[in-house]
Amino acid sequence: MDAAVPKLKALPLDKHDFEVLSDFRYQIRKFVRFSEEVTHQHGVTPLQYLLLLHVKGYPDRDWATVGELAERLQVQQHGVVALISRCEKLGFVERRRSSEDRRRIEIPRLAALSDSQFGSLSLFRRLVIVQRRLRNHLEVCEIYKIYLQ
Q1: Please, what is the Cα angle at 88 between 82 and 93, to 5 degrees?
Q2: Which end of the chain is more exposed for a tag (fewer CB within 10 A), N or C?
Q3: Alpha helices of 5-132 — where are they, by DSSP H?
């Protein structure tokens, strides 16, 4: 969250550009809404699921720091601390001091939400990604790159 928001270049956009961007955002919103419904059906809030996903999916280790989770969730660190506290009370995660750097707090995922439950949530997401491919995604990515120049 510390990275500065890139300044967008003022480029003339035509009707097709707006149609592509609109469809892209629409597909993202449908995916997010579906994901929220699936997590609620499994008794987990969408933010709790995302926290668990980012802990489990953090590259090369089975834990993440508060700062890393804040970046992944794109929220402030104090908000992540509150979310971690709620997940800790439910037995989803715990806080532990790093053995390498006592100042660092590591957040590993615990087994309160079983791997089969967690896996079924991820499976639903994989199915949605496969079934609802974003149309013109390469074109949208190219437009986004132009904005960031």
Answers
A1: 110
A2: C
A3: 15-41, 46-56, 66-73, 77-89, 115-131
In the block, residue with structure tokens 């794109």: 74
Name, in order, each residue with C-beta under 8 angstroms of 45's C-beta and a sequence gap of 6 or more: 39
As beta bridge partners, residue 106 has 65, 96
The tokens 């053995």 sit on which residue?
Answer: 99
115 pLDDT more than 70? no
Q: What pLDDT, on a 0 to 100 scale, did the predictor assign at position 84?
A: 96
CA–CA dist 55, 102 (Å, integer): 20
- Judged on CB neighbours under 10 Å (0-12, 13-18, 19+), 80 is buried
Residue 54 in contact with residue 73, Cβ under 8 Å? yes
For the chain, the domains span 15-148
15-148: CATH topology is Arc Repressor Mutant, subunit A (1.10.10)
pTM above 0.85, yes or no: no
Spatial contact of 105 and 66, defined as CB atoms under 8 Å apart = yes
* Distance (Å, whole) CA 80 – CA 77: 5
